[in-house]
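RECORD TYPE: inverse folding
INPUT: structure tokens
STRUCTURE:
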């Protein structure tokens, strides 16, 4: 009888200990001690530009602060590649997706697939043209376009022929062009020629600048929607001895700023804050996970950089 009572006592003690451990384990998970990291799939537009390397650094910094795991890939400006990356994120059952779309409209079906899988989607720098996006974090690109136009208007004394080398597939670029045209339209002595598509890359922008310069011998200025475009246009201007041409770029990448400092035809740039875009994108994701209110659009300020302010 004593043996039976001893066995029963030991059994109850063991059972209580196991239950207590389970309670402690669950409490630890609930309090974050043993919480599973949230995984976020990220598809960048590219890793070739300084802008996106800085944006990625911001993402990484904020992810560490929030204990998130990032799965970062580059879309390499290839829509089909980025679509595949999103589908792979869904197979991996990530908790959220952050996109810098390669094509504003073309990416919509992939976002809709994420919506159907109940995976929240966030965009950074470039907006999407379809599907449900929780929050879009980007520079105030319309304001940036206005700044570029104001600089050019002043530099050419509100008179002359002006061109744009754009990239209509990307919404952020469309916004820059919209802001630029808004200011130029208020100056009746400025003639704005049709926008040429430089694809956001240097070699194609060089060819577009060649066409602009050859087709408009009295061209006074070109607004370029990013610095790869601006540097392509600069190569074209220098090859033709057009040092009096005024080129304004966008991004303030180191190579472009160096060209501005040395007194080239690239006179100014609209500077963004890509690291802040990355930080704020992760902050939006963290708010969503907590159930806090998330702004549908988060704007990051921009500023003009020229030979004076770039020192």
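DESIGNED SEQUENCE:
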């Amino acid at each position: 009888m004593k043996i039976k009572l001893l066995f029963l006592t030991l059994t109850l003690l063991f059972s209580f200990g196991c239950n207590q451990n389970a309670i402690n384990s669950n409490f630890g998970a609930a309090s974050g001690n043993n919480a599973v990291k949230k995984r976020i799939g990220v598809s960048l537009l590219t890793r070739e530009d300084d802008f996106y390397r800085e944006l990625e650094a911001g993402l990484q910094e904020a992810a560490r602060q929030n204990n998130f795991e990032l799965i970062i890939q580059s879309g390499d400006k290839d829509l089909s590649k980025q679509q595949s990356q999103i589908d792979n994120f869904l197979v991996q059952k990530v908790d959220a997706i952050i996109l810098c779309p390669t094509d504003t409209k073309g990416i919509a079906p992939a976002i809709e697939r994420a919506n159907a899988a109940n995976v929240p989607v966030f965009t950074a720098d470039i907006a999407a043209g379809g599907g449900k996006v929780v929050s879009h974090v980007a520079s105030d690109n319309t304001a940036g376009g206005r700044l570029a136009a104001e600089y050019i208007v002043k530099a050419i004394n509100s008179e002359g022929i002006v061109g744009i080398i754009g990239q209509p597939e990307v919404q952020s670029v469309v916004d820059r062009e919209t802001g630029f045209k808004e200011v130029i339209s208020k100056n009746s002595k400025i003639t704005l020629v049709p926008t040429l598509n430089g694809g956001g890359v240097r070699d194609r922008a060089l060819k577009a600048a060649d066409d602009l310069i050859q087709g408009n011998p009295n061209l006074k200025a070109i607004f370029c929607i990013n610095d790869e475009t601006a540097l392509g246009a600069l190569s074209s201007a220098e090859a033709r001895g057009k040092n009096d041409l005024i080129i304004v770029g966008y991004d303030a990448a180191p190579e472009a700023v160096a060209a501005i400092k040395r007194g080239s035809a690239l006179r100014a740039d609209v500077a963004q804050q890509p690291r802040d875009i990355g930080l704020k994108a992760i902050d939006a994701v963290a708010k969503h996970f907590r159930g806090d209110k998330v702004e549908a659009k988060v704007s990051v300020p921009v500023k003009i950089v020229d030979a004076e302010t770039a020192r």
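NOTES: Confidence is low (pLDDT under 50) at residues 1-33.
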